[in-house]
Amino acid sequence: MGSGFNFDLSKKTHIFHLKVWVLVTIFLGIFILLVLLLLWCCITRKTSRKKNTLPISLIPNVSGEIKEIRIDQNSANHVDRDSDIFNVQEKYGEKDSDKLLVHFKNDKEKNDDGSTQSGSFNYLDKDDSALESGDKNCSSHPITVASPLAGLPELSHLGWGHWFTLRDLEVATNKFSKDNIIGEGGYGIVYRGQLINGATVAVKRLLNNLGQAEKEFRVEVEAIGHVRHKNLVRLLGYCIEGTHRLLVYEYVNNGNLEQWLHGAMSHHGHLTWEGRMKILLGTAKAYVAPEYASSGFLNEKSDVYSFGVVLVEAITGRDPVDDSLPVHEKNLVDWLKMMVAAKRSEEVVDPSLETRPSTSALKRALLTALRCVDPNAEQRPAMSQVVRMLESEEYPIPREGRKKQKEKH
């Protein structure tokens, strides 16, 4: 019987003249593969369903490199093509308007209290040591779990944010009421608003982008909206309707650099030297313009100059332009260059600092700033070099820069 069975299995078939046992093995293998494929499809489908049901709020708020933008804005932070297209931190607050796109804007902006300010930015940090006497009263905002977009109509959700109608934002800002203005400048006006889900947001109504081609505007906003970095603020969404162009950011009721140096938050205390340098270093690391500059709307070297102005502002505690000072001191950059040339560097440090920086730290910051504001754009460093310069223990002219200098000589 056994020999007969073996004989049957050894018989050749009409299918390519294969033996019966070979065909059985092939069919059994195909069956196993189909079962495994079916199991893989089921597992994949379940996984994708879970991902799709994750709320937006579960997107990591902080990550090591480019993963999440914390939109803290205490002032006007937004993205303009002309002046700010990458907020390194835009925080919207109640009184002052600032923006901090990595593309800094140096034009002065008018605030609620009648004061003016220039390209400064906001910075949130868990390290309270950044502030001196009043730092405890101004605690940094913890990362919240709830998303400002939670509860909004799903049909309006974009891959990275939300598409708003003009009506949505009119309702949120009480028809763009003057009472809700938290900042304004050449780029536009920033309003505080409340969405239908109760979330408070900052709405930036662009003035210099009116009527910009819809496709072009969408490309710019999409580029910004997908950026994720722990030192960047997050864009929640936008509105394109007729000639209206609006951007929506998270509203964070916290101070920004300009406020801590010159404005409403200074009564809480003064930023320490370490705190100021940490802000500037975080800003430099979050710079994203090089990848976006291919559009032709951003100029990296111009942004480096603007960053240098903010660095000088942090060192001195002075406004970039102050008409109340003598003629030779009105322009901050020119005054700084004059003081350094006269070997009076120690005198430029903000007098409000309780603990002065070391000579080496001051020299490092000053030389970095001076390179950033070099009149010759080609001589300005790249932001990656700025980061190394600020982190180095000694004044670091990057090796590439040294080679270029030697070649020129």
TrEMBL record:
Residue spans crossing the bilayer: 20-43
Signal peptide: none
Residue stretches making up the Protein kinase domain: 176-409
Alphabetically ordered keywords of this record: ATP-binding, Kinase, Membrane, Nucleotide-binding, Phosphoprotein, Receptor, Serine/threonine-protein kinase, Transferase, Transmembrane, Transmembrane helix
Keyword Phosphoprotein in annotation: yes
Catalysed reactions, semicolon-separated: L-threonyl-[protein] + ATP = O-phospho-L-threonyl-[protein] + ADP + H(+); L-seryl-[protein] + ATP = O-phospho-L-seryl-[protein] + ADP + H(+)
Membrane topology value: Single-pass membrane protein
Binding site for ATP: 204
Top-tier EC class: transferase
Record localization: Membrane
GO CC term (a single one): membrane
Organism lineage: Eukaryota, Viridiplantae, Streptophyta, Embryophyta, Tracheophyta
PANTHER family (alphabetical): OS01G0323000 PROTEIN, PROTEIN KINASE DOMAIN-CONTAINING PROTEIN
Entry protein name: non-specific serine/threonine protein kinase
E.C. numbers: 2.7.11.1
Stored SUPFAM superfamilies: Protein kinase-like (PK-like)
Keyword field contains Phosphoprotein: yes
Originating species: Sesamum angustifolium
PROSITE patterns: PROTEIN_KINASE_ATP, PROTEIN_KINASE_DOM
GO molecular function (one): ATP binding
